[in-house]
Amino acid sequence: MTPKQQYTFLIKQKAQELGFMFCGVSRAEFLEEEAPRLENWLNRQMHGQMHYMENHFDKRLDPRLLVEGAKSVVSLLLNYYPEQPQPTDTFQISKYAYGQDYHFVIKDKLKSLLAYIRETIGDVGGRAFVDSAPVLDKAWAKKSGLGWVGKNSNLITPQVGSFYFIAELIIDLELEYDGPIKDYCGTCTKCIDACPTDAIIEPYVVNGSKCISYFTIELKDQIPQEVNGKFGNWVFGCDICQDVCPWNRFAKAHQEPAFDPQPGLTEFSKKDWQEITEEIFKEVFRKSAVKRTGFNGLLRNIKFVIPKNED
Question: For this protein, what is the EC number (predicted)?
Fold first, then answer.
């Protein structure tokens, strides 16, 4: 086994020990294929009020601008699929937000992985990334063979579907690189057909500013009336395009205690949601990603999805 193979094996083995579902490695280089796609998406204003997407265009496409001397991008998947989803007759939040905020949970695991690499291999420079810096995580995961980017623009992995977080370590160490896998979406259009706001404007292109997740999390203004009645029960995020994806029949419950639902959350009735106080909000969602929308934002979303005759 060459040193590169040995290092790659050790990193993947440790990633598994830390609870990551899959780990893949790609060469740190300019994302040639993504550059025109990202530019076009931004030019068409599909990011809405997510102005941060316009920042650091070059860094998004070249990890060597984020980590000096970067040689490898280590992509990791962490499962968040719950054993018991919320009942469908109540207000819904995305499954990824049931438990503790993933940023903190994954960051700790990545720090442990980086520390292990330094202890075992030597003085390796690098940084950990969890959805909080200009890194195109799906593009890197795809390059390293962890899945393909589906028509709903989510990464899909044949063995498990798409209910997972993606994270990266960008390091200045040469490793053994994986290659991409085939796209298995075929002729299926279930995600496109199911999207109530027509956010998937064509296969593989999502207008972020039309997505229920955008309206209920990113948008700080009033939700436009033209989408009234289209949200179903979704009040934070949306899982529709994942729930209907045939590949998610392979999803298995996660083994990460930090992602277990906050106590009482899965028992919340519509009445409980409507009567939620700021005190209960702070208690139940103290460590949750739901904090991002804020108490008033959540109330706005709940009010928006209640049919006028029930108001």
Answer: 1.17.99.6
